[in-house]
From TrEMBL:
GO terms for molecular function: 4 iron, 4 sulfur cluster binding; catalytic activity, acting on DNA; hydrolase activity, acting on glycosyl bonds; metal ion binding. This is G/T mismatches repair enzyme. The lineage of its organism: Archaea, Methanobacteriati, Methanobacteriota, Stenosarchaea group, Candidatus Methanofastidiosia. Belongs to the Nth/MutY family. Its cofactor is [4Fe-4S] cluster.
Amino acid sequence: MKSIEIYNILRNYFGAVGSWWPKERPFEVIIGAILTQQSTWTNVEKALKNLNQQGILTPFEIEEIPLEKLKELIKSSGFFNQKANRLKEISEYLITQYNGNLELLFNKNKKELRKELLNLKGIGPETADSIILYSAEKAEFVVDAYTKRIYSRLGLVNEKIDYENLKEFIIEGIPEELTIYQEYHGLLVLLGKNICKKNNPKCMECPLKDKCDFGKKENG
DNA sequence: GCCCAGGGGGCTC
DNA sequence: GAGCCCCATGGG
């Protein structure tokens, strides 16, 4: 089975999801992308709300706020010591390199942009791609834990497959378009969050059950 | 109480 | 370069 078939099945099942990421300012998407690492979105939302209430919306305010205060505000998202330090470092980088203006960074082509993001501590492949897809709004597919689980359960890839190889496999045959990439990622998240779950997959409710042996294996 | 979440970095061999 | 371990809160 190919990605485009999965896409069509999910699109018919869930309907249009659009961009799942709340439409915020580009820098807030970057903050969210860091905070959501290995964390739930509901916990991230609390942190984002705290930052908003304190008027912390740009790299400049992140840089100015005392580290301990920043930790306190983002505590709910977990790993707050690391994340606070990384937000500080990234903000400092954006200020010194681009005077805090993300437009300048996002003007670069995708490949350069991705390379530059990956050089920053705290931004790995998934976070970099999330920033490109949802903040810079360029067509760069995001692979996440849900995606990996779904594709490996479908028997399309080995569960040990690395990020870049899985990404290559997934985007094969899909139009390289912003809205398609956002939509497909959103659909996979919905499936992974609600049905193709880690410990209790609801295989009987899965729109892909006819294409997937995973549920059958589990039953015997 | 236990398991887990939309990762990433650092260390080891 | 793969394989571990650490980071830490909050929800089910």
